[in-house]
Write a structure and sequence with these properties.
This protein has 204 residues and is α+β, with helices and mostly antiparallel strands. It is built from eight helices and four strands. It has helices at 14-23, 67-78, 93-102, 109-119, 126-148, 159-173, 181-191, 194-202, and strands at residues 3-8, 28-32, 56-59, 62-65. The chain has a four-stranded mixed sheet, covered by helices on one side. The radius of gyration is 17 Å and the shape is globular.
């Protein structure tokens, strides 16, 4: 078994755990735990990659960081029939590509910044207010999209759904989906998938 995923608890690496389960690819998961005081990743990850972040994928002698890059690598190598990613000539491809990158880009970053500001006790600042506004705009964008489409790439489940789920799960945990009926329905639908349940068994 050459594929090895380094998975950190309470982190975005759960998205790759889910994607691997959807692909049905044999792999090993190495569990890492956050420091209980700092909540940072353990120093052991620095021995694998200089950024010391999770997820990290090892494929033989190859080590890949960054969630989106790992997802693209796995799909290129293990999804030849394009079951989880549209072909480049598909009408769904541009939409798929946008959401795959939004999962770590403009849609995701305001929430991450606000999380850091909260931990620093800086929520009562103009920057925090700006990030809250950007976060609300991101969630409205998601709701508008899912009101028109069954999934992020269109009418078919893809890896974009795996990658976008982390932010939406976080919003649900904060009680932010009560008025977002389309997003809430999407989350309930993907949480019923066997591969999603398999991810939960691994541990998030």
């Amino acid at each position: 078994m050459s594929l090895k995923l380094h998975h950190l608890n309470a982190s975005r690496s759960q998205r790759i755990v889910w994607l691997l389960a959807e692909l049905g690819v044999p792999h090993e998961i190495v569990h890492h735990s956050r420091d209980p005081e700092t909540r940072l990743a353990p120093a052991a990850l620095l021995d694998i990659h200089p950024m010391g972040k999770s997820p990290l994928l090892e494929d033989g002698d190859t080590v890949i960081a960054e969630t989106g890059a790992i997802a693209e690598y796995l799909l290129a190598r293990h999804d030849p029939d394009h079951a989880l990613h549209p072909r480049a000539d598909s009408a769904d491809f541009p939409r798929y590509l946008e959401w795959v990158h939004a999962a770590e880009g403009a849609i995701f970053l305001p929430g991450l910044f606000r999380f850091y500001l909260m931990n620093a006790g800086l929520l009562d600042t103009p920057l925090a207010a700006a990030m809250e506004g950007e976060q609300a705009k991101a969630m409205k964008t998601i709701e508008t999209h899912l009101a028109k489409h069954a999934y992020f790439a269109g009418e078919t489940f893809t890896a974009a759904d795996c990658l976008m789920a982390f932010q939406i799960q976080s919003a649900a945990a904060a009680g932010a989906l009560e008025a977002m009926l389309a997003t809430k329905a999407w989350l309930e639908k993907v949480q019923a998938r066997p591969a999603y349940k398999a991810m939960l068994e691994v541990g998030v």
